Amino acid sequence: MDRTDLETYQVQLSQVDAALQAEPDNAELASLRDELKELINLTEQALAQAAASSSKVESSRKAASTPSLAWSAGDECMAKYSADGAWYPARITAVAGSEQNRVYTVVFKGYNSTEQAKPSDLKPLPPSYANTVSATKRKHETDEEKERKKKKNEKKLETRAAKAKEQNQKQATWQKFAKKSEKKGVHIAGVSGTSIFKTPDNPLGKVGVTGSGKGMTQVTQQGKHKFAPNLDDNP
Fold first, then answer.
1. Which of 4-18, 82-96, 143-157, 175-189 has the highest mean predicted lDDT (pLDDT)?
2. Which intervals hold domain Tudor (predicted)?
3. CB within 8 A of 44, min separation 6: which ones?
4. Separation of alpha carbons 43 and 28, rounded Å
5. How many CB atoms lie within 10 A of CB 156?
6. How far is residue 146's CA from residue 226's CA, in Å, rounded to a whole number?
7. How far is 80 from 146, CA to CA, in rounded Å?
8. Above pLDDT 90, what percent of the chain?
């Protein structure tokens, strides 16, 4: 049976109804009308069952052609929100249920709301969203690297400043010590006066040698002591 047969039965029923109006007491026409009504009813039921069966077969075929994804805890996905039926980015936090009846716990990003979802309520993230996330992650990593370098340079500058300060303090302490020594009559080369490392004025002098370039000290020959006995005189 198909819809064409149903339309044929409906046309025949209308013709029998018209004939009964002319002959309302015709028992044969009345019986034919009842048979046509029952036939039409059976045909409509058969067509409805055929449509339902076809729909189930189509759904099964689509399900078989589209394998379900094996989601795991920690996966990023798009999840359907039960309140409005819209899809939002989410993260799977837990997986429960049997293999034939999985139940996923998801947390919607930006809202921190948690829901239980079926496999049909999950789908992969669109490529555009994944690319945006990757670009944002790379930018975030670049910013972190810049911040690390900035802190490292600041630490180097602080270390150099501390060393310079320490050196200045040591130099000030030495200068203070040298001045006190000078007041006590102790001369410390390089602090006041002439440095021992200054180039001598004498061209024969050497740097770092005190008195360099001067002539040798003359040795005076000693004479005889007036009380010394004359060894040349004989007794």
1. 82-96
2. 70-132
3. 6
4. 22
5. 10
6. 95
7. 38
8. 14
* Long-range pairs, 138-142, Cβ under 8 A, ≥24: none
| Residue 181 clears pLDDT 90, i.e. is over it | no
Put the strands of the sheet holding 102-108 in their side by side order.
Answer: 114-117, 102-108, 87-97, 76-80, 122-123
Q: Residue type at 207?
A: V
State which amino acid sits at residue 106. Answer: V
- pLDDT tens sequence across 81-92: 988 888 999 999
Can you read off the two tokens belonging to residue 138? 């790379």
Instruction: Spell out the residues 6+ positions from residue 113 whose beta carbon is closer than 8 angstroms to its own.
Output: 107
Strand 102-108 and strand 87-97: the pairing is antiparallel
What does the block give as tokens for 86? 């819209």
Cα–Cα distance, 171 to 23 (Å, whole number): 136
Task: Print the SS3 string covering the chain.
Answer: CCHHHHHHHHHHHHHHHHHHHHCCCCHHHHHHHHHHHHHHHHHHHHHHHHHHHHHHHHHHHHHHHCCCCCCCCCCEEEEECCCCCCEEEEEEEEEEECCCCEEEEEEECCCCCEEEECHHHEECCCHHHHHHHHHHHHHHHHHHHHHHHHHHHHHHHHHHHHHHHHHHHHHHHHHHHHHHHHHCCCCCCCCCCCCCCCCCCCCCCCCCCCCCCCCCCCCCCCCCCCCCCCCCCCC
